[in-house]
Amino acid sequence: MKAVTWQGKRKVSVDNVADPIMLEPTDAIIRVTSTAICGSDLHLYELLGPFLDAGDILGHESMGTVVEIGDSVTALKVGDRVVVPFNIACGQCFMCQRGLQSQCETTQVREQGSGAALFGYTKLYGQVPGGQAEFLRVPLADYNTIPVGTDLPDERYLFLSDILPTAWQGVKYANVPEGGTLAVMGLGPVGQFVSRVGRHLGYEVLAVDPVPERRAMAERHGIETWDLTADTTAELKERTMGRGPDAVVDAVGMEAHGNPVAGFAQAAVGFLPDAIARKAMDVAGIDRLAAMYASIDLVRRGGTVSLSGVYSGEADVMPIKTMFDKQVSLRMGQCNVKNWIDDLMPLVEDPADPLGVTDLVTHSVPIDRAPEMYETFQKKHDGCIKVVLKPAGE
């Protein structure tokens, strides 16, 4: 089959690799009809190479049709159309029963001290082959699939795999009071959905991004936007009676603009031998924290900062004095996808499309164009906001 594989820093390729095979009676194989490039995939493209091997199959936002099931699979049949959540969970353990599927005790990657295994996301999360491929093996398939109908196009359902529940969780974790104000740092795919979810839930939403095309997309959905300048924080505070918004979602993460020292550290890690680089990332503060610092500075006293962007530095410096003085609450974590599906499925299937899931994809291309689209997405060229790959060329 064709698959998108990691080959080195800023280098991916589309290769012919062995088709996945059933390893356990609880497995299923799906033929992938749509798979997206996530902002988190850009961290693999740029920074997390020390935790990858050449040839690793990327991708964790996928959906398709079931073509094979194991003997112990009871909830699926061949021909079912399904979305595959990016985290792999059992649905039965202490964590899963509490809606913390990203911490599943059955699939935790204990040798790395990490939470639940993820598709296509490095040794840190199990080195499980990902879904940017023609076929995907799904472990514990009864739980790790979301059956969907056949009438609506893939793009109505695909984002249930990751970014839509990630955005929903980010807003829920932000603990915005009824009728309150939510600021969103970053208008990439997750930030777009965070903004729309916040507006759908009745909050005033103020969003910041330096890219005009991203601001324009958000504005189509009634979001008030700001460019990122030296004056933005002051302007947003003035906009909120001098206090700052009730909550801020950081939808940017570890590769934010700013902090050239951390930027140099990120680049330097990429040139170290893998074993040394992994150790450096385990003990160093290498994240560019501009978005997080801005969020903490911006939020009102007694407010909440919710982190949806990914961070990986183990020793990042946090402004604890400011956080303590302002009484800021901080919530974060990998999304617990299955925990939010019952809330989101009616919105995704609503003919009115209240979250605008059909207005996110800017590039839908055959899988052979993946290397080109990784570069385009990272460089924010050609108005690129969300890329969907079509392994079957549909």
Automatic annotation (TrEMBL):
Organism of derivation: Conyzicola nivalis
PANTHER family xref list: DEHYDROGENASE, ZINC-CONTAINING, PUTATIVE (AFU_ORTHOLOGUE AFUA_2G02810)-RELATED, ZINC-TYPE ALCOHOL DEHYDROGENASE-LIKE
Cofactor list: Zn(2+)
Domain Alcohol dehydrogenase-like C-terminal: 189-255
PROSITE patterns: ADH_ZINC
Name of the protein in its database record: Glutathione-dependent formaldehyde dehydrogenase
Domain Alcohol dehydrogenase-like N-terminal per the UniProt entry, residue ranges: 25-141
Molecular-function annotations in GO: oxidoreductase activity; zinc ion binding
Family: Belongs to the zinc-containing alcohol dehydrogenase family.
Keyword terms of this UniProt record: Metal-binding, Oxidoreductase, Zinc
